[in-house]
Amino acid sequence: MVVQFKVFKKAAPNGKLTIYLGRRDFVDHVSTVDPVDGVLVVDPSYLNNRRVFGQLVCSFRYGREEDETMGLSFQKDLYLASEQIYPPKNDECSKLQERLIKKLGANAYPFTFKMPEQAPPSVTIQPAQEDEGRPCGVEYYIKVYVGENEEDRSHKRSTVQLNIRRIQFAPSRAGRQPCTIVRKDFMLSPGELELEVNLDKQLYYHNEKIAINIMVRNHSNKTVKKIKSAVQQSVDVCLFSGGQYRSTVASVETQEGCPVSPGSALQKVLYLTPTLSSNMDRRGIALDGHLKNIHTNLASSTLLANPESRDMFGMIISYTVKVKLYLGAMGGEVTAELPFVLMHPKPDLRRMMRADSQAQVEAFRSDSVNQSVDMD
User: Fold this and answer.
1) Phi–psi pair at 71, nearest 5 degrees
2) Closest residue by Cα to residue 48 from 158, 192, 168
3) Is the dihedral of CA 171, 173, 177, 180 positive or negative?
């Protein structure tokens, strides 16, 4: 039986350095983060007693590249980890690294970087079609270069740079079912208008339909003429004190059951499905970190171990359902909001580890490794 598994490969322009990774998505478990591990293959005749260093870099872009003039830069590069890969200083290897070294030969050397727990997840802000340059957001990449020391300037021909992603999965336990009641009284009205909104659950997965249960009780002398419901994505750029903005990613408007006249009530369920496919041409929508040839989606909600200790070079993503009752020109509006969590489900880790281990064993026994070359 021949089983293949994918290994991501990236070589320097001169072909003397090549790095191999078993994956490009590294999971942030809130309390811990998966280490970034891989293997470097070097051409010893090229080095001439020089050293090879590796770095894990978080790049935070908060402005358009075409707006950078007169030395002004809207990008910050944070060097999260750095180590000397060749000559090797550390002999510790994971199982994947051991098998890659056995497969690739004596000139293969392992490297491992540890991500800080407080570092932000990968996020990409969708640019407009006419925008040029790199999009705004948070991205991570591994940089491997040849030099005399860590501070030595790297040269493009002898440098390898491969993008990776830091992602989060949905928690194993969902929170309480969201529910809210908003009451509004009016001048010269003996009663009040009551709007009750609740969701069927607090945690939703991407591309899952959201059921919004709406109950209107009209004890006032106003008339409800229209109901609108929307899913709003909130992006909080931590670097700026006023760096929060919202975008509507799904909405529906209805007059079914309206008007709701004084003394009557209305119960209704509206359904919304926030997806990237319906927001492809909209600038400013936050997406999960984008990698070449890897499908992305709307950005997942950001989970924080401590909301007060946020990384200033990050973006916090959250979602809310907003329901609005329109009462006409003189009556105004009544609005209710409910937060919820939108994420990917956590994969079955035991099954994945078992499958990966078996695939690796069979692949190396059969001398069959499917190498995917990425040219980010």
Assistant:
1) 80, 0
2) 158
3) negative
Listed in sequence order, the residues at least 6 apart from 99 whose beta carbon sits closer than 8 Å to its beta carbon are 360, 364
- How many other CB atoms sit within 10 Å of the CB of residue 207? 13
Q: Using CA atoms in the order 347, 348, 349, 353, what is the torsion angle rounded to 10 degrees?
A: -110
Give CA torsion, residues 305, 306, 307, 312, to 10 deg. -90
Tokens representing residue 172 in the block: 């194993």
CA–CA gap between residue 238 and residue 281 (Å, rounded):
26
Q: Decide: helix, strand or coil at residue 322.
A: strand
One-letter identity of residue 132: E
% helix, strand, coil for the chain, step of 5: 10, 45, 45
pTM (predicted TM-score): 0.85
Omega before residue 259 within 30° of 0, cis: yes
**Model confidence pLDDT, tens digit, residues 112-151:** 999 988 888 999 999 888 888 888 999 999 999 998 888 8
Sheet holding 17-21, edge to edge: 108-113, 36-42, 17-21, 6-11, 370-373
Under 8 Å between Cβ of 161 and 19:
no
